Amino acid sequence: MNMSKSDYLFVFLACFTGFICFFTKGSDSFASAFGYSFNLLVLILPTLVGGLLLSGLIQQFIDQDKINKALGEKSGFSGLIFATLAGVITPGGPFTSFPIVFALWVAGADIGALVAYIAAWSLIGIYRLVIWEIPMMGMDLSLLRFFVSIPLPILAGFAARWLVKYLPLKVQDVAKK
């Protein structure tokens, strides 16, 4: 298993904050924090496993040539529209959507399409609108927020493409790992 710099950072932060908790709040607080973390892991693990399995299955079923054509570097505006629509209809939380993003990235989707997908999933997910927003905030406010947010994923996708092309940003190519 290869650990990245960010993996080491999170392990360090967990150990460091655990150390501080133990020595400032005592062993009872440390045990309570550890128990809470374990319960959270047990709660999230099934969803995470499902999302990772989904990612693996998507990688096996996706035709890389089709993804490259639909969402790759040369997909243009239509690639951003397609990624936005996919983000809008993707249900679930980050344990569902981010494995899909990873599978699309490995399959050849470009950074603009991936950013548009993530932005659409987080800003204009239809499931969130129907299940949470309309019942809690009412139809008028919810639809107004939804409709004014529609262009944002496309703009974010264009911005991501521009930043990667014209600024010295290095986006790791996971397909070559």
Can you put this structure into words, describing what you see?
- This protein is an all-alpha fold.
- The protein folds into 2 domains: 1-61; 63-177, no CATH class.
- Helix 4 (76-89) packs parallel to helix 6 (111-124), helix 6 (111-124) packs antiparallel against helix 9 and helix 7 (126-137) runs antiparallel to helix 8.
- 82% of the residues lie in helices and 0% in strands.
- It is built from 9 helices and no strands.
- The protein has helices at residues 5-25, 27-61, 64-71, 76-89, 94-107, 111-124, 126-137, 139-149, 151-166.
- The model has no long low-confidence stretch (mean pLDDT 89).
Low-confidence stretches: none
Structural category is: mainly alpha
Please provide the count of β strands: 0
How widely separated are the two ends? 13 Å
Q: Report the major sheet.
A: none
Overall pLDDT, averaged?
Answer: 89
Rg over CA atoms:
20 Å
Helix content: over 70%
Work out the strand percent.
under 5%
Give a nutshell description of this structure:
The chain has 177 residues and is mainly α. Helices cover 82% and strands 0% of the residues.
